[in-house]
Amino acid sequence: MFEKVLIANRGEIALRVARACRELGIKSVALYSTADAESAVVRFADEAVHVGPPHPGKSYLHIPNVIGAALKTGADAVHPGYGFLSEDPFFAEICENNGLTFIGPRPEVMEKVGDKAVARDLMSKAGLPLLPGTIEPVQTVDEAQEIAASIGYPLIIKAVAGGGGRGMNVVYREEDLARLYQTTRTTAQAVFKDSAVYIERYLEAPRHTEVQLVCDDHGNGVYFFERDCSVQRRHQKLIEEAPSIHLSDEQRRDIGERAVNGALSVGYTGAGTMEFLLDGEGNLSFMEMNARIQVEHPVSEMITSIDLIQEQIRVAAGERLSVSQDEVVLRGHAMECRVNAEDPDRDFAPAAGRLDVYVPPGGPWTRVDSHCYPGWAIAPFYDSLIAKLIVWAPTRTEAIERMDRALSEFQIEGRGVKTTIPFHRRVLADERFRSGDVSTDFVEHFLAGEAEVAA
Ligand code: MV4
After folding, report:
1. Cα 106 to middle of ligand 1, angstroms
2. Total count of domains within the chain
3. Which residue from 155, 168, 285 has its CB within 8 A of the most atoms of ligand 1, so it is best to mutate?
4. At 36, which CATH number?
5. Do 209 and 277 touch, CB atoms closer than 8 A?
6. Is 421 found in the same domain as 341?
7. Residue 52 in 3-state DSSP?
8. Tag placement on the chain: N or C end, fewer CB within 10 Å?
9. Ligand 1 center to 427 CA (angstroms)
10. Residue 126 falls within a domain, yes or no?
């Protein structure tokens, strides 16, 4: 096992990783920018190294400074968290070249699954279900037209280097195809430095369903069931839950096994997520793979009682997964609300500032993953996440009641600070949400409905 892990991140996930290290008997090293000098993880970790000014490009994303901090403190591994350098194969390679274990998949594997067309090809070969579309990137408008004729409209053109909803365009009519094909390519070249695109049939208002898995170096892979993350706004997840109430036990086992097989078939190691869309008929289609631990991992931990960060560290150290698939048992229902410093009444605009009052909820089966404390200032340089509020209950309905109770206790106040808590409470009271009839267009319709009532 590692003796010392450098945490190449900030905020709640840095603290989450430091906690896992402490429980495993591993020393932790925090990084901090000038803006984060007073952060909770700086106090909690065994050591802390300043890596630069507030701007992420000059601190948390500055590879020489991050690697320098690891070498200076004698760390033997680097945990990248999510965001920042977590899915950068180049960073993973530099870690390895400096004798540091990158806690994540190998750089070659990361690169493969990061290319959406390659991932689509490999996962299809491994038996994952796909929407009708292209495997090879589309090279010309003529080719795009041929494909459109075979799969029909609506269709979606996606950048191979995109992901998380970036670099995609929906085409409803044939007359828009040539223009949108060109637009997607030009944008992809400008944003990702790679103009390659592929085409898929477009699903209207699907559910976002993702399978959590962890694979070790010994050929073992385990799935930790799925999360429904359909409550999103502009590709920002707001509420996540596990399991999805729309899968049968048989479907859950089938997609879990396929996801693990797919990951193992490409030599994937570490924690990862396979993202699927679920249509109205109950069909799952593979979308993309995320080669990192995700923000919403706690809901999977809560339904399985397994610490995914500990598993991630264990397998990175070359140990075997601590559980076999048979030992991963799904129990009850978990839900997470992302409490952001945003103003839901002003189009979720950032509303950051100093937290004069910060009183997190407590009580049974109520978990708060947060780096905040009274007096902490949410900085404008980073994301606006204040806390992840996670609850567990035997049933979904009880989880909703528990979440509302916990949200009602959560006190956050500060000059200029607004939070998404009131929005979450209104969603929890919504009939459509409570019935579970939620797809990726839910938030848009919900907000439009509220605006109509207010008018
Ligand atoms: C789609 C789709 C409909 N049809 N692909 C957005 C995130 C990226 N991982 C995939 N995305 C989508 N791909 C086809 N063929 C709709 C979306 C989509 C979406 C997916 C998940 C959650 C929210 C979403 C919001 C808008 C569009």
Report:
1. 27
2. 3
3. 168
4. 3.40.50.20
5. yes
6. yes
7. strand
8. C
9. 21
10. no
Report which of 86, 113, 141 is spatially closest to residue 297, judged by C-alpha positions.
86
Q: Which residues line ligand 1 (CB under 6 A)?
A: 131, 156, 164-165, 200-203, 206, 208, 232, 235, 275, 277, 287-288, 440
Atom 17, ligand 1: which residue's CA is nearest? 165
In a domain, 91, yes or no: yes
Q: How far is the CA of 165 from the centre of ligand 1 (A)?
A: 6
Does the annotation count 16 as an active-site position? Answer: no
The Cβ of residue 111 has, within 10 Å, a number of other Cβ atoms equal to: 18
Q: What residue has token string 């080719």?
A: 143
Same domain assignment for residues 185 and 218: no
DSSP 133: B
Ligand 1 pocket: which of 207, 277, 289, 438 to mutate (most atoms within 8 A of CB) = 277
Q: Whose CA is nearest to atom 11 of ligand 1?
A: 165
443 domain residue, yes or no: yes
What range defines the domain where residue 138 resides?
132-201
Residues 230, 440: contact at Cβ < 8 Å?
yes
Q: How far apart are CA 170 and CA 181, in angstroms?
A: 10
Are 236 and 378 members of one domain? Answer: yes
pLDDT in tens, the chain (455 residues): 999 999 999 999 999 999 999 999 999 999 999 999 999 999 999 999 999 999 999 999 999 999 999 999 999 999 999 999 999 999 999 999 999 999 999 999 999 999 999 999 999 999 999 999 998 899 999 999 999 999 999 999 999 998 878 899 999 999 999 999 999 999 999 999 999 999 999 999 999 999 999 999 999 999 999 999 999 999 999 999 999 999 999 999 999 999 999 999 999 999 999 999 999 999 999 999 999 999 999 999 999 999 999 999 999 999 999 999 999 999 999 999 999 999 999 999 999 999 999 999 999 999 999 999 999 999 999 999 999 999 999 999 999 999 999 999 999 999 999 999 999 999 999 999 999 999 999 999 999 999 999 88
Please identify which of the residues 106, 292, 314, 367 carries the catalytic annotation. 292
In a shared domain, residues 242 and 316: yes
Output the residue whose Cα is nearest ligand 1's atom 7: 165
Which amino acid would we find at residue 269? T
